[in-house]
């Protein structure tokens, strides 16, 4: 079936390094994608999104890249800080109109930032 | 983003009992959803809570087990019925305003003994 998944379940980086979290998806009909950050004991928090007609979008210290040819999504975090330690999920959105809006989550990557 | 409050934030329940989780949004939203997140796993959509009508359930979830109400544009409840230890999980309420992002509550952590 259609799914959204991740290449690496865990990622450990040194403070100040750049982090790259990857995600593969299988449904080319998706409208757009979102990256969420989930800290321990909390709900997912929106980080950044990207529409399917874009290749790249930048936010504050974060960049999302979308490669539709290989159905690959990545989240880059610049100058990673201890506060970035969390589980990161990519989510795929299919919106076929009206109330047919559906967000499907990938498996998640645990990012650990070492001081 | 709007603020979502969930109650209870956590509970320990006995097998065979039912528990209702409340979700309150601080402003009107067009769509509300309920997700389940089992320990160490990703989020799975249970259902879309429709205002004034029956919820739309995803495959593997049924109304008898997870009855949902949404009486207005800011409030919804999810009941986990006849609980078993396999229902131990985090249940998350989420909401979306028009074409905006989907935002989440902090979740309700259920432990079933």
Protein described:
- The complex is a heterodimer of chains A (115) and B (113).
- With 115 residues, chain A is mostly beta strands.
- Helix content of chain A is 0%, strand content 56%.
- Chain A is built from no helices and 11 strands.
- In chain A, strands 2, 4, 5, 9, 10 and 11 form a 6-stranded mixed beta sheet that branches.
- Chain B has strands at residues 4-7, 10-13, 19-25, 31-37, 43-49, 56-57, 68-69, 75-80, 89-96, 102-104, 108-112.
- Chain B contains no helices and 11 strands.
- The model of chain B has no long low-confidence stretch (mean pLDDT 94).
- In chain B, a hairpin with a 5-residue loop joins strand 7 and strand 8.
- The A-B interface holds A 34, 41-46, 49, 89, 99, 101-108 and B 1, 4, 31, 33, 41-45, 48, 50, 56, 92, 94, 96, 101-107.
Q: What's the total helix number of chain B?
A: 0
Shape estimate of chain B: globular
Order of helix and strand elements from N to C terminus of chain B: EEEEEEEEEEE
| Mean model confidence by pLDDT of chain A | 87
In angstroms, what is the radius of gyration of chain B? 13 Å
Distance between the termini of chain B: 36 Å
Structural class of chain B: mainly beta
Distance separating the two termini of chain A: 40 Å
Structural class of chain A: mainly beta
Beta-strand content of chain A:
over 45%
Helical content band of chain A:
under 10%
Which consecutive residue ranges of chain B, at least 5 long each, have pLDDT under 50?
Answer: none
Task: Summarize the main sheet of chain A.
Answer: 6 strands, mixed
Tally of helical runs of chain A: 0
The helix/strand order of chain A is EEEEEEEEEEE
Largest interface: A-B, 18 and 22 residues
Shape of chain A: globular
> What is the chains' assembly state?
heterodimer
